[in-house]
Amino acid sequence: MRNIMRKSIIFLGTFLFLSGWVIRDNVFAYTPIDLYDNVWRLINNKFVDQSNNQQDWAKWRHKYDSKIHTNEDAYVAINTMVASLNDPYTKFLDPKEFADETSSIKGSLKGIGIQIAVKDGKLMVIAPIEDTPAEKAGLQADDEILEIDGVSTKGITVDKAADKIRGKEGTQVTLLVKRKDNPPKKYVITRAEIEIKSISQKLPTDMKIPDDLCYIRLSSFISRNAATEFGTILTNNSDKKGFIIDLRSNPGGLLTNAIYISDMFLDGGTIVSTVDRDGYKETQRASAGVYTKKPVVVLINKGSASASEIFSGAMKDNHRAVIIGEQSFGKGLVQEINKLPYESGINITIQKYLTPNGTDINKKGITPDIEVKLTEEDVKNKNDLQLKKAVEVLSKMTNGQEIAAQ
User: Fold this and answer.
1) Does residue 313 contact residue 272 with C-beta atoms inside 8 Å?
2) Which one of 140, 144, 312, 362 is most buried, counting C-beta atoms within 10 A?
3) Which of 246, 263, 317, 369 is catalytic?
4) Active site residue 185
5) What radius of gyration do the chain's Cα atoms show?
């Protein structure tokens, strides 16, 4: 459909692993030293910051030649080298981590069902996955994880945190969590096999919405079938007067899904642009023709990240939808997954992306047209003020009223 497909898969998300990826094979008959050198060369050629965090990257190339004898030696050396980039999204994956990442793309993993990120040096919850042990235990977006099984998370990487939180189905993990100004609280959560569901029409509360409106909950863009399933829902609800698309706590997924789903609503125009280390800008545009021209409201919050921000940014900048909720997460970088020998891999930040208006949302996020915040009391009492506002606004739009940003 577009040249963004190339021979790779771009992924944007933070499911206990990463966000924004392209998968490539780099598999040859390598020694452990060759493995280290391959990673050095990949970063040297691809990392979005040509200065490699203001350092002489050449100093790393042969730094550990005399110390690397086994794969494990190479893993330690690679992790040390990669850490010098000071980029939480560029990371080496040993065979277990790479297998976990691959299984998540296929749609399942074993753990508690939580998306995490390191933000300003803190291990933060982006969002719990719907209907998982993490959500049932009460974890929320923007919670800070202070300890995992009694061990401090200070200085921890996303990979190491994910490895500690994951585990065999039926085992338990204890998290010490701080929520805003509240005292820290311990959560003992039993691990399970997590099925990553992408699309649902089940309302998050007992609230009713008018029969002539269609609610679509998109919890992630990760499933390869998400765009097809989304298109089917639009087709099956073509008689509805308007659509509410709920992207709250959606941490991202496949970039192609974000592009295809945006294209269902946009009759031409820019969806997203990516800029690489050389400043080369590649723009993805919507094709002619849409699934529907009916009014749309998009719900976002601080757990909406990456591919969610591409979709909501495209809908906002093209004036195709009214965005309601809270400022999104602010993850505007693209990673490439490079498959390496011995079933390992390296994720490298290769691009940043811009919304159609040219806005760089990294560390800033998408600003809603209408801000509606939820308090802890609202969440506890299942008082979904954001969804209520969405219904109110969409009902006005279907009646021909213009909606101004608030």
Assistant:
1) yes
2) 312
3) 317
4) no
5) 21
Compute the distance between CA of residue 122 and CA of residue 56 in angstroms, rounded to an integer: 28
Which of the residues 198, 220, 249, 306 is marked catalytic? 306
In contact, 321 and 297? CB cutoff 8 Å: yes
Contact status, residue 316 vs residue 369, Cβ threshold 8 Å: yes
Question: Distance between CA 390 and CA 215 in Å, rounded?
Answer: 10
Residue 156 pLDDT > 50: yes
Q: Which of 194-198, 223-227, 252-256, 372-376 has the lowest mean pLDDT?
A: 194-198
Q: Which of 250, 16, 12, 308 is nearest to 145 (CA)?
A: 16
Does residue 8 have an active-site annotation? no
Which residues face 274 on adjacent strands? 282, 353
Instruction: State the pairing for strand pair 296-300/242-246.
Output: parallel
User: Considering Cα of 371, then 377, then 252, then 145, what sign does the dihedral take?
Assistant: positive
**Taking 80 as the threshold, does the pLDDT of residue 103 lie above it?**
no
Q: Which of 316, 331, 352, 389 is catalytic?
A: 331
Q: Reply yes or no on whether 331 is catalytic.
A: yes
Q: Which pTM was predicted? A: 0.72
Rounded to whole angstroms, the Cα distance separating 292 from 237 reads 10
Q: What is the pLDDT of residues 27-85, one digit of tens each?
A: 445 799 999 999 999 999 999 999 999 999 999 999 999 999 999 999 999 999 999 99
pLDDT for residue 90: 93
